[in-house]
Amino acid sequence: MDHMRSKLRAIVVSAAVVMLGVIGCSSEPPEPTEAGFIYTFAGADEGFAPDAEDRHEARFGAVSDLVAAGGWLYVADGAIVSRINLADGAFEVVAGNGSIGPMPESGPDIRQTALPSVRSLDVDAENNRLYALLFDNPDAGVVQVDLGTGEYELLFREEHLTKIRLRDDNNLLFMERASDNLVNFELATRERRDVLPGVHAFNFAVADGQVVYILTSHEERAILRADFRDSSVTVVVDSMEVSPLLRQVREDAEALQNPYPMFSYMAVAPTGDIAFVDSSRYGHTVGTLDPGEGNWTLVAGTGPIGDAGDGGPATDANVRSGPIAFDDEGNLYMGHKRGDLRVIRRINSVAE
User: Fold this and answer.
1) What H or E segment, with its residue span, contains residue 212?
2) What is the DSSP string of 33-95?
3) At residue 349, does pLDDT exceed 50?
4) Contact between residue 86 and residue 327 where contact means Cβ atoms under 8 Å apart
C-alpha cells in the first residue's frame, strides 16, 4: 500500500511540474498598468512575418510611422503596412506582400502587391481608407487604399515627400522636403495649395482637423499654430536654442551647448498637448508641451540612448528616436530599434 501511495505521489508531482512548465512557456510576461510606465507592446525578431496573428508574434523591419485610429494601431514597416487591434492584440497585414516593388499605379488588392518603402501613412476616422506615402528613389507617391477590398489607386507622385496626415476626410497634408513647404491636397478635386508660403516646415502634427502645429526648420526651431477655420497663424514657441527636454535631464555645460533640439517626431495627444521625440546628442527623450500654458513635461528618457527600463517608470528608462502615436485613451506608442529587434513600446496614460 505504501509503495502504491509513493508511486501515485510521484505521478502527481510529475504532472504538476509538466503543467507549470507549459503554463510558464505559454504566458507572456506581465504588462504594467500604472500610468507613466513603459513596456514592449509589440514585436519579436526582425523580419517580415506574414503568418503572425498576435502583436507578440509580429516582426518589424524598419518602423517609419505609426497612427492610431478606430481602435487599431497602424504601422508603416519597410514595404508593408500592418495593424494591431488595441483591444485584443490581433495583428494583420493590410498593404504589401513583403517584397520590394516599383511605384504601383492601381490594382484590385494591395495586400498581394509588392511595394516600395512606406515612409508615412494615415487612416480615416472610420477605418475605411488608408493613405500611404511610398518612396521609390527618387520618386515619392501617395496611394489611396480601400481597407475593405484592398483596391488601391495612386493619387499623385513627385519627389521629396516626407510625411502625410489627413486634416479631415477630404484634405490631406504633406511635406515637400525640397522646399520645406507644407501642402494641403484636396482629395475630391485633387487641388493643392501651400499652407504657409515662406515658412520652412521641418515637421507637423494635426490636432483636430482644423488646427495644425508646425515645427519650423533647424535654424529657427519655432512652433506655430495654424487654424484653418479663420486662417490664423499664432506663435506657440518663438525659438529654441536648447531643447527644453534636454534641460530636464542634463545640467552640464557640454550638453547644453548643443545648438538646437532635434525633434525628429511629433504627435498631438487627445488632451491637445503636443508630444515630441528629442534625439539630441545628449538628451534622447520624449516630452509634451501644453500649447496654451507653454509648460514642458518629461514623459520618457534619462538622456543616454538605450533600451533599459521596460516594466518601470518611463522617466527612468532609456529611449531611442522613433515615430510616436496616441490612442484615444492617451497611451503613447513609440517605434523602437533595439539591436536586431524592431519593436513598439507603449507608455501608459501619458495624456488623460
Assistant:
1) strand 211-216
2) -STTBEEEEE--SSS--TT--BTTT---S-EEEEEEETTEEEEEETTEEEEEETTT-BEEEEE
3) yes
4) yes
Task: Look up the pTM and report it.
Answer: 0.88
The whole-number pLDDT of residue 11 equals 40
- C-alpha–C-alpha distance, residues 280 and 246, integer Å: 8
The predicted-structure confidence for 251-309, as pLDDT tens digits, reads as follows: 555 555 555 667 889 999 999 999 999 887 767 899 999 999 999 999 999 888 888 89
Cα–Cα dist 8/238, whole Å: 78
Alpha-carbon gap, residue 261 to 187, rounded angstroms? 34
Residue 146 CB neighbour total at 10 angstroms: 15
Of 76 and 307, more confident: 76
Strands (E), 228-331: 232-237, 263-268, 274-280, 283-289, 296-303, 324-326
CA–CA gap between residue 179 and residue 177 (Å, rounded) = 6
Residue 48: CA count within 13 A, CB half-sphere = 15
Bond before 138 cis per omega within 30 degrees = yes
Q: Which amino acid would we find at residue 120?
A: S
Coil, strand or helix at 158: strand
- 60, 76 Cβ separation under 8 angstroms: no
Residue 96 near residue 145 (C-beta atoms within 8 A): no
